[in-house]
Amino acid sequence: MIGGIIKILVGKPGLDGHDRGAKVIALALRDAGMEVIYTGLHKTLEQIVRTAVQEGVDVIGLSIMSGAHLPICRRLLELMRTEGIAEIPVVVGGVIPQQDVPKLKEMGIQGVFPGGTPFDEIVAAVRNVAGAQAGTGA
Predict the structure, then answer these.
(1) The whole model's pTM is what?
(2) pLDDT at 136 over 60
């Protein structure tokens, strides 16, 4: 975090072509004072991790509408460990059934936002995980 500004990468992995929600969240995070890097549609997890490394982000956020959130998040966390960026918090939003929220958190996802989560809640959670990562507990 440079100068207290959180830098978050918003990624759209896989073949899911629905990115309206990701764009709206990206705008809400930007309006909350964060620097947002949006990957665009159809990115591989390898591309998302590479962008996170290149950009030096504080948080990685995934938007997943396909229902494949469990294997996608599991693989992302594996790639992050391999690339030496496992300390970067990951949050995920999209079509996520409530019964999968504990599973995602158990695997290490630090914020889970099913469809309809209020923007204020998402912004606060991103600030919290970024602050915890920076050691400030903000």
Answers:
(1) 0.93
(2) no
